[in-house]
Amino acid sequence: MKIQLSDHFTYGRLLRFAAPSVLMMIFTSVYSVVDGFFVSNFAGKTPFAAVNLIFPFLMIVATVGFIFGTGGTAIVAKAFGEGEREHANKLFSLFVYISFLLGVLFAVLGIIYIEPISRLLGADGALLENCVLYGRIILLALPFYVLQLMFQTFFVAAEKPKLGLAVTVSAGVTNMILDAVLVILLPQEHKLAGAAVATAMSQVIGGGVPLVYFARENSSILRLGKTHFDGAAILKACTNGSSEFMSNVSMNVVGMLYNIQLLKYAGEDGVAAYGVMMYVSFIFAAAFIGYSIGTSPVISYHFGAQNLDELSSLLKKSVTVILWASGFMVLAGEVLSRPLSAVFVGYDRELLELTVSGFRIFALSFLFMGIAIFGSGFFTALNDGLTSAVISFLRTLVFQVAFVLILPLVWEIFGVWFSIVAAELMAAALTVVFIKIRQKDYLY
Fold first, then answer.
1. Are 286 and 21 in contact (CB under 8 A)?
2. Angle of CA points 366, 370, 376, to nearest 5°
3. Is 185 exposed, middle or buried (0-12, 13-18, 19+ CB in 10 A)?
4. Which of 69, 119, 290, 343 is spaced 20 to 30 Å from 79 by Cα?
5. What is the pLDDT of residues 387-439, one digit of tens each?
6. 279/51: higher pLDDT
7. Distances (CA, A) of 262 to 286, 413, 422
C-alpha cells in the first residue's frame, strides 16, 4: 500500500517511509568509502591523504544542493499541505534551476582556485599535485552533484522515496564498477585520476537522471516546468536550509582544521587515519541524516495542515528510533574498529594501530550525534530555520573548533580524537533543551 504524507504514522509506517531515504544516504556514503578503499589500497598512502585533505573543500562548494534540498523541500511540502499544488511545483522548478546555475558558477571558481586552496590546507610537493588533480576532475561534475544532493530530499516530497533510492544505487554501482576498472587497471600515475573520473561519472548519473525524470511527465506529485524568479521564496529556502548549509560547511571547515592539527601531531599518517574514521562516520551519520530527510516532508505536511497531535506523535516516535539506533551504532563501531581500519590501511602496521586507537575513541560520538542531526532537521521541517541553524552552527563549528584547539594541548593526538565526542555530547544536550523550550510553539 502506498504511504502518503497525509497518513497517520505508526512506528512501522514511519520506518517503512523513511527506510528508502536511510538506505539512499547510506549507499551514497558507501560508494564514497569504496572510492577511498581503491585509492588507499591501489594508488597509495599519499594519494589517499590528498583525497582526504581536499575532500572537505569539494563538499563545501556542493552544499548549495543541501540548502535548496532541505530548505526548499520544507516549503514545497508545506505548500502541498496547504492545498497549493500548482504553486508548489513552480517553487520546486525555481529551486532546481537556481541550484544548477550556482553549481556551474562554483565549479568554475573552484577549478581556478584549487591550487592556492590546497596550499592553504597544508599540501605541498606530491600531496599538492594529487589534491589539484583529484579536485579539478571532481569539480567538472559539480553542477550534477549539487542536483543529486538536492533531489535526495525532493524524491521524498514527491512521494517517490524508492525511486530516489534506485537512482542512488545506480550512481553508486557506476562508481564502484568504474573504480574497479580504472583504479586497478590504469598505470600507477593515473590511478588517482581514474578514481576521480569514477566519482564524477556517478555524480552525473545521480543528478542527471532525476533531472530528466522530473522534466518529463511522471507519476509523482512534482514536475519541472515554467516558473518565475521569486526572491522571497529563494531567501526563505536559504533560511530554512541554513542549518544544513551551516552543518555541512562547518563540518568540512572543521575537517580542514582537524587535518591541519593532525599534520602537526602525526604527519601524513594522521590525515590518513582521520580519513578512515571519516569514511566510516559518513556511513553511520548517513543513517541519521537519511531518517531526517525521510521524515522531514511528513513533518512539514502535518505542520502545514496543523495536525498537531500527529506532529507530536512523530517527534516522540522519532526520538525513540534515534536513541535505539545510537546505542547500536556505538556497539558496532567498537566491535568493528579494527576490521574496518584494516580494510583501508592494513598494509601499514603503524598506521593501522594509530587508526584503531583513534577509532575506538571516535566511535563514542555515535551515541550523541543522532539527536542533534534529527533535531536540526525537525526544526527545518517546521520552517524554523533559525533554531535549526543555531543547533547546526554550535554543533558543527563552535563546539568542534573549541575542542579540537583546546584538547590536543593537553592530550596531543588523543585530544584530537576526543574532540568530536565532546562536541557531539554538547550538541545533543543543547538540542534537547531547544526541543523542550520550543515544543509549546509547535505541538500544543
1. no
2. 140
3. exposed
4. 290
5. 887 887 788 778 888 898 898 888 888 888 888 899 999 999 999 998 888 77
6. 51
7. 24, 7, 18
Residue the block writes with cell 538540542: 431
CA distance 14 to 321: 10
Site of grid cell 578512515: 276
* Helix-, strand-, coil-residue percentages of the chain, each rounded to 5: 90, 0, 10
Alpha helix segments (H runs only) across 62-190: 64-66, 72-81, 85-120, 125-140, 142-157, 161-185
Q: Which of 111, 121, 188 lies closest to 142, judged by CA?
A: 111
Instruction: Quote the strand ranges of 242-378, DSSP E.
Output: none
Model pTM score: 0.69
Span 164-183, pLDDT tens digits = 888 888 888 898 899 889 98
Cα angle for residues 73, 76, 81 (degrees, 5° grid): 120
Least confident residue range of 123-132, 201-210, 274-283, 323-332: 274-283
